[in-house]
Design a protein that fits this description.
The complex is a heterodimer of chains A (about 120) and B (about 270). With about 120 residues, chain A is of the alpha/beta class. Helices cover about 40% and strands about 20% of the residues of chain A. Chain A has a five-stranded parallel β-sheet, sandwiched between helices. Chain A is globular, with a radius of gyration of 13 Å. The termini of chain A are close together. With about 270 residues, chain B is α+β, with helices and mostly antiparallel strands. The chains are: A alpha/beta (about 120), B alpha+beta (about 270).
Chain lengths: ~120, ~270
């Protein structure tokens, strides 16, 4: 069975731990972590990923910028991106979706929701 | 003489032959009659059989139909039972997922709170837990000095911890200090409370003493009340955040050193 590679980009250690905790429950998943958009891009350029899960509000490079860069780079423009939004309000979510994000999760995060969205994006 | 004798013999044989022929004819007649009778019998039996066959077949089909109906009912009962079992498993799965989510949240809360001795880090972790796991957008961390003075702790824009005297008028927060019990606003209370009033009051307890209170003033827009998970996280925060803050402050009071020998022997 092939292994799926997932990149989690999140500045908050608490959130990152929760997202990774949920994703680890899906079989055949290799998870890499980054603390901001720049770190995420570095990991993306170094290896191939099947899914990117990114927070929107992050220092140095936020999630919206990261989504935009991913979608405009032919190397990984087809990688599915899931954004995590703080507000239930539509502004950030709509901006992320307009930039090319495939799906969104709102905080507070439910582990079941992370798993559901990740499985959907990976087609498993 | 000889001629007469010959004629007599022939006559006798002819008579004999006629007798045999007669008997043969009678026998043949008898056979024909018997044949006729048997043919009638065969026709009778065939007619009877023809009349009886559909009834037998009908009965057989009825029996078979009854068996099939019984089997069908049995299968329907099994489907019903499997569906109920399936529903039960689905509900159980949802319960386990909720439990798992709760445990994940509690595990991460504890793990993060006890991952550092830095007060700023602890405050940041409390903020993250309240924002990301509970959905609290605005909260206050209030501490009580031994002389009863209330202090509010914050992190300034430079990321440094600040603490200042504060006067609290919110009766629920004051009750949290005096009674040491959690209070969470019900959905009905949530609608009535003002923007700056506390929606949740969580006393920070060490050895049963209230050293401070976490007061949640505002929740995220999409959050209209507290869930069971929130309650459990608040219960855990009440103990573990208090312990993490005290441990960090005690360590700083000891200039960052942890003297195990002194610590163990001072209680011996």
């Amino acid at each position: 069975m092939s292994e799926y590679r997932v990149l989690v980009v999140e500045d908050s250690p608490t959130m990152r731990q929760l997202i990774v905790f949920a994703l680890k429950r899906i079989r055949n998943l290799h998870i890499e972590e980054a603390g901001d958009g720049v770190g995420g891009l570095k990991k993306l350029s170094a290896q191939k990923f099947d899914l990117v899960v990114t927070d929107i509000n992050m220092p140095i490079m936020d999630g919206l910028k990261l989504v935009s860069l991913i979608r405009n780079d032919p190397q990984y423009k087809d990688v599915p991106v899931v954004v995590i939004t703080t507000e239930g309000a539509t502004e950030d979510r709509d901006r992320a979706l307009a930039l090319g994000a495939n799906e969104y999760i709102t905080k507070p995060i439910q582990t079941a929701r992370i798993m559901e969205v990740a499985k959907k994006m990976l087609g498993i | 003489m000889t001629d007469n004798n010959d004629a007599g013999g022939m006559h006798s044989r002819a008579e004999e032959f006629l007798q045999v022929f007669k008997k043969g004819a009678e026998f043949t007649q008898g056979l024909l009659k018997e044949n006729e009778r048997l043919r009638f019998r065969v026709i009778e039996l065939e007619q009877h059989h023809r009349a009886e066959t559909p009834l037998v077949e009908l009965q057989l089909l009825k029996d078979r139909l009854q068996r099939v109906e019984a089997e069908k009912q049995e299968i329907l009962d099994k489907i019903c039972s499997v569906e109920q079992e399936n529903l039960s498993f689905t509900n159980r799965y949802a319960e386990i997922e909720a439990e798992n989510n709760l445990l994940a949240n509690l595990y991460i809360t504890t793990y993060q709170l006890h991952s550092t001795f830095e007060v700023v880090e602890i405050l940041r972790i409390i903020e993250e837990i309240l924002l990301n796991l509970v959905g609290a957008e605005e909260f206050s961390l209030l501490l009580r000095e031994e002389n009863g003075q209330l202090l509010q702790s914050t992190i300034n824009e430079s990321g440094l911890p600040q603490i200042a005297e504060v006067e609290i008028n919110d009766t629920r927060i004051l009750a949290g200090f005096s009674e040491g019990r959690n209070w969470l606003a019900s959905p009905a209370e949530m609608k009535q409370l003002g923007a700056n009033e506390a929606k949740a009051v969580i006393p920070l307890l060490v050895d049963g003493d209230v050293i401070g209170v976490l007061a949640v003033q505002r929740l995220l827009a999409q959050k209209c009340g507290f869930s069971e998970i929130d309650e459990e996280i608040f219960n855990l925060l009440g103990i573990h955040a208090a312990m993490a803050i005290c441990t960090a402050i005690l360590r700083h009071g000891n200039e960052g050193h942890v003297n195990f020998r002194q610590g163990f022997l001072s209680r011996a």
